[in-house]
Structures are given as C-alpha cells and as structure tokens.
Amino acid sequence: MNVGFIGTGSMGSILIESFIKTNALQPKQIIAANRTFQKAERLAAAYPGLRAARSNIEVVLESDIVFLCIKPKQFKKVIDEIKRVVLPEQLIVSITSPVLIRHLEEHLRCKIAKMIPSITNYVCSGATLVMLGNRLNTDDAERLENLLKHISKPLKVSEEYTRISSDLSSCGPAFLSFFVEQFVNAAVEKTGIPKEEAARLACEMVLGTGLLLTAGGFSPESLRERVTVPGGITEEGLRMLSMDLEGTFERLIRSTHNKYHEELEKVEGLFYNPTQ
Ligand SMILES: NC(=O)c1ccc[n+]([C@@H]2O[C@H](COP(=O)([O-])OP(=O)(O)OC[C@H]3O[C@@H](n4cnc5c(N)ncnc54)[C@H](OP(=O)(O)O)[C@@H]3O)[C@@H](O)[C@H]2O)c1
Questions:
Q1: What integer best gives the mean pLDDT of the chain?
Q2: Minimal CA–CA distance to 99: which of 260, 276, 246, 236?
Q3: Looking at ligand 1, which residue's alpha carbon is closest to its atom 15?
Q4: Of 92, 184, 232, 275, whose CB neighbour count within 10 A is largest?
Q5: Which of 123, 96, 78 is nearest to 12 (CA)?
C-alpha cells in the first residue's frame, strides 16, 4: 500500500514521522508534496526511501490513500488540481474540520474519509477522530483504522460533533499547555521558584494525571475528590478557580464554534460560489 500526503506542514509532517517511527509505514511507501517543495524534500532527506513529489497530481497517481494536510482555504485549489486523476477506488482522507465529507464527495469521485489528528499522536497517544464517507466498504474502513491504530486510538465520531470533538482532542493540548504555562509563570512570579523546576513539576504532574485518568481508573470527578481534603489547601484553590472560571468553558466552546462556522461559510463560498 502506498500512502500520499499533500501538505507537509505541522500536521502533515507529524503524521508522516509518526507512521514511520511506529513502523506503520516504511518510508518507501510514502510520497509527499508541499507547496514549498523544500519542506517535502527535507522529509525525503531525513527518511531515505520517502519520495518528495513536485506536484500534488504525482502524489495522487502513486498512492492508494492520500491524506490532505492543508488548511481549509487551500482545499478548493487542491481539489480542482487532483480531481481529473483521482480514481474511484482511491481513498482521500481530509484532516480538516470545516471541510465536510459532502463537499469532498460532491467534487471527487473517490472514497472520502475525514480524520482529525492531534499533536498527541506524535507520541502515539491521544485519539484520532474518524468519520467515514458513504463510498467506503468495510475493508477500506478497517485499512484506515489499522493504519491509525499505530499512532493513536481511532475513535469514530459523527460529523455533527466534529467541532466539539476536535476542541477536546486536537485543541485540547494547546488549551492544557496554556493552563500549565500560566500556572508556571505565576509560580515563578509569586514565589521566585526557578522556572525550569516549576515547569518540570507541572509537566510531570500532567503526565501522571493523564495516566490516572486513562489507565488508572479515575474519572476527572473522582480524581478531584480524591485529592481534595475537606477544609484543606486544594479545596481553597478549587473554590477560587470555580468562581473565577465560571462560564469560561461555555465561552471557549462558543468562540471555537463561531470560528468554525465562519470557516465553513468561507469553504462553502469557495466550493459553490467561487467568484465570492
Ligand atoms: N496542527 C494541529 O495540531 C492540527 C490538529 C488537527 C487538525 N489540523 C488541521 O490540519 C490542517 C493543516 O494544519 P497544519 O497545522 O499542518 O498547517 P500548516 O503547518 O500551515 O501546513 C499546511 C501545509 O500545506 C501546504 N500547502 C498549502 N497549499 C498547498 C498546495 N496547494 N499544495 C500542497 N501543499 C500546500 C503549506 O505549504 P507552505 O510550506 O508553502 O506553506 C503547508 O506546509 C488544518 O486544516 C488544521 O485544521 C491541525
């Protein structure tokens, strides 16, 4: 099986490197193109056997599965470029939430799936959110899932919940890192603890908490309750946090969903009203 990548920016290169590191794919099974050719060339130099293609068409011609790792506004151009050479038996997988399966099925005659990765896949952890189009059969679905299993826990989700699932799974690492960053900066500023020490403590805490919440049998609620001694220091911190953060997550979700709908409208404009 040959796997192609169109776009080798942040997520395209993470996926390629993770598939190679986990032996899900050998470099010689991979062909990649990127608008700035040097990025694809760098991957070819780092992983002998991997082919850097000069065009997106070349990627499609040589692949069974093609991952589209480009931004929403770049889709129309790439789809127009590849649609003449795509074959019905090929599988195209988009990794972008505001481009819907229906947009791709309407413009390409091949099998279509959507897969939303997470930076956590770089360490073979976290979920990949999987949505399957109507043209995939059971074998296609299994083939995709087997590939993704090497780097993640593939989780089938309904496209209706793509945005909220992506907020949790793909934006989540940035949100959690922001929390850690703020916590560490405040610790340094308020107490003078060396930054490196504070950061190491906080990062080890995140790792341990993640393990407890997955393999360790705790839910977020039961873990919080276990740590919080009534009348103790944690309880005091939580009391302050719940007052100050009231409504924060509702506002967070509203803002990501507003942005998603804006992008969805732009994508629809590009696909159905190209003069806009
Ligand atoms: N980053 C994440 O954690 C994450 C997680 C889940 C999903 N996603 C989704 O993944 C998609 C890509 O995100 P990203 O963070 O990887 O963005 P990125 O770093 O900007 O990568 C996009 C790549 O696409 C290339 N490109 C643009 N137009 C192209 C064309 N016509 N043909 C071939 N290549 C082209 C760009 O090339 P240049 O080098 O010329 O700019 C760039 O390297 C986004 O839709 C995002 O929502 C990202």
A1: 96
A2: 260
A3: 10
A4: 92
A5: 96
Q: Using pLDDT thresholds of 50, 70 and 90, give the confidence band for residue 275.
A: low
The H or E element that residue 18 is part of is: helix 10-21
Q: Is the pLDDT of residue 274 over 90?
A: no
> Which of 70, 148, 162, 259 gets mutated to test ligand 1 (max ligand atoms within 8 A of its CB)?
70
Q: Are 260 and 98 in contact (CB under 8 A)?
A: yes
Q: What is the pLDDT of residue 276?
A: 54
CB of residue 9 inside a 6 A radius of ligand 1: yes
CA distance linking residue 233 with residue 243, whole number of Å: 16
pLDDT of residue 271: 86
The residues near 1 (Cβ < 8 Å, ≥ 6 apart) are: 29, 64, 65, 143
SS3 of residue 182 by DSSP = helix
Structural domains in the chain, CATH included, are 3-157 (3.40.50.720), 165-253 (1.10.3730.10)
Provide the pLDDT for residue 273: 77
23 lines ligand 1 (CB under 6 A): no
Encoded tokens for 23: 């032996």
* Atom number of ligand 1 nearest to Cα 97: 47
